[in-house]
Amino acid sequence: MGITGHSTGPLTDDGLVQLLTPAGERTSHPDYDARVAHLDADALRGLYRDMVLVRRFDTEATALQRQGELALFAQGLGQEAAQIGSGRALAAQDHVFPSYREHGVAHTRGVDLTDVLRLFRGVDHGGWDPVGHGFHLYTLVIGSHTLHATGYAMGVQRDGAVGTGDPDRDTAVVVYFGDGATSQGDVSEALVFAAVNNSPVVFFCQNNQWAISEPTTKQARVPLADRGPGFGVPSVRVDGNDVLATYAVTAEALERARSGGGPTFIEAYTYRMGAHTTSDDPSRYRSSAEEESWRLRDPIDRLRTHLEERGELPTAFVEELAAEADALGERIRTTVRGMGHPSPASMFEHVYATPHSVVEGERVWFEQYEASFADGARAGEGSHR
C-alpha cells in the first residue's frame, strides 16, 4: 500500500472558503452563498460597525496598559472578522468558551467590553455573568478550555437540548483557541471525546500564525484543519479576514451541532497584527514586510471597500460610527481609571464554589502577615525585607 503525503504546508491559501476578496470583491461559493443571502445592507453595516468598535476597544486598552492602568492586555488587532463573523452566527442559547483574546466574540454576546478589562487590571477574575451572556470567563491556561467546552456539550446532549427540531432549544457550544493550543494534549483529548460522543461542539481555531514567537510552521507540517478528520471530526478552512465567509462556515457548523450532527473543526486563517500581549515585542521574531503584506488583507478595510463600491456606506453612517467609537473610547478610559484597586486578600475569593477550610486558613494567615507590616512600622521596627 502506498503512503500519500501532503504537498502543502500549514500556511497555504489552498482550500480557504472566501466570499469577500481582500479587494472587497464579492465572490461566489456553491456551498456557502446561501448562508449569507439574508444579510442585507443593514446587516453588512452592522458587521462593519462591530469590527470598528472592537478595534477601537483594542486600541484604547493597549494605550491604557502603556499608561500603567492595566497590568497586561492581549490584543485582537487583525482578527476582528474571525470573531465578529463567528459570533454573529451564534444563537441566544448557544454557549461560548473563549481563551483570552476573544474580545470581538464577547461584544457579540452582549458583554460590556469594560468588564473584560477588569481581568486585565486585576480587579477580579472576569466581570460578567457567563450564564446570562452564554459566554464563559476567559481562560488563560492554553487549550484547557477545549475540554471544558466538550464536557459542557456532552451535558447539553444529556439535557436533551440537541436535535429536537426546536430552534429556540437546540444548543451548540463553541470553543475558541489559537494555533499554539493545537500543540497541547488537552485539545487532542477534547477532539477524542467530542468525536466519540458526537457532541454539539464547534472547535474554532484562530490560526493567527504565531504562538507568541513560535510560528505555525514549527508546529505543523500540514494545515491545522487536517487534524480534525484524524479524530473523525469534519473540518473546514476559512479566510479568517473575511467576515462573510467566517459567518457562513460557522453558521453551517452550528446548524450541524444543534441538529445532532456532532462536532466541527474550523480553522480561521488570519494574522495577529499586534503583539501576543503588551509584554511581547513581535519585531524580534517577524519582519515588517510580513506585517505589511497582511495589512493589505485588513478585515475592516475589506468590508468597507465592498460597502463603498456598492454605494451602501453613507457619510452619515460613517460619521455616526466615528462619534460612537469616540464615545466608547472615552467611556473605556473613564471606567478603567475608576475601577480602583482590589484588596490583596481578595485573591482568596471565588477559588471554590463553597467555603474551603484550607483557603480560609491561608486568607487569615495572609491578612495577619499584611497587618504585621503596619504593626512593625508603628513599633519602630523598620521595614520587612
UniProtKB/TrEMBL annotation:
InterPro entries: Alpha-ketoacid_DH_E1_comp, DH_E1, PdhA/BkdA, THDP-binding. The keyword Oxidoreductase applies. GO terms for biological process: branched-chain amino acid catabolic process. Its cofactor is thiamine diphosphate. One of its GO terms (molecular function) is magnesium ion binding. Residues 49-326 form the Dehydrogenase E1 component domain. CDD domains: TPP_E1_PDC_ADC_BCADC. Keywords: Oxidoreductase, Pyruvate, Thiamine pyrophosphate. This is Pyruvate dehydrogenase E1 component subunit alpha.
